[in-house]
Amino acid sequence: MMTSAEAYAERLFGASLSTYETFSTYVGLTLGWFAALADDGPATSTELAARTGTQERYCREFCEFQASLGVLTVDDASDPLRRVFALPAGPAEVLLDVQSLNYLGPLTRMAVAAGRRIDDLLSAYRGGGGVSWEAFGDDARESQAELNRPWFTRALGPALASVPDLHADLSRPGARILDLGCGGGWSTLALATAYPDATVIGIDVDAPSLQLARAAAAAAGLGDRVDFVLTGGEDVPGPEPYDAAFAFECLHDLPRPVEVLAAVRAAVRPGGPVVIMDEAVADEFAAPGSEVDRCMYGFSLFICLPDGMASTPSAGTGTVMRRPVLTDYAMRAGFAEVSVLPIEDFSFFRFYRLS
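-> structure tokens emitted (355 positions)
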């Protein structure tokens, strides 16, 4: 609890420093400075600027800033132009390794996406309405897809296999699986990879995300067992029933979650599993809140809540969708029970089964 001016001043100063670090990291990723150090080895600012086609003076300021943060290492040359900067293996993994469960480089893109729309966000906060996912642009959609990619690619199959009855449903020969709000398609491809006898249909309302998904499917050689459909959750493609349905980190974004859950329930065969993966926030509000809750409030205020409020009518859920809220939505959609699946340590997420 911040009870003194001095304590809060120190906290706000640290938060401002973290903000500039976030934007600096975004710049280093976007301009290829980090990648060039990782791929081609240590360099002076002059060498790094030449490798990346950028301006040396700005490159030098970036390198010195990142070195002052302790991210880059540097020799102690007295001449600034002779200092050699290097990217250690740990930060390189976090920033650049798309297969690592520590991969967080794209997190900076979500912050920048929100910053670009700050005037629109302020307008919504004052007068209502929202800012659509489309308006947040490529930084938001690609950040979302890339942050979840390693978890879906490496961990989703084993996580689902650890729940025997769910695994049995998904392993049915010729199973049809619905992936609601599939975004860039990594969850769809993970399901198709884990269950080679299944056909997986991913649906989303964002056309550019589905372009990313189709390209990823083609690159993975899974184009014959996955399909991507541009549609909202209230209009689930038919007419054949699905054996299972998933909604990975998207229900809290939907303006009309009850209607979507009702449509999914009607589209899945009787007894077929409906699984919601969403943020593992606390069941009840608390102040101070957990680190997870604080992080999700940040996403909610600047991205997810404005997205959900961009369409009317809207439930206005936001990222901090607590278990009682999801249970209420499910019951109103016609489900009888909401249970938590025994899947733990899956990033910031919790898995719910609706039945």
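The mean pLDDT is 97.
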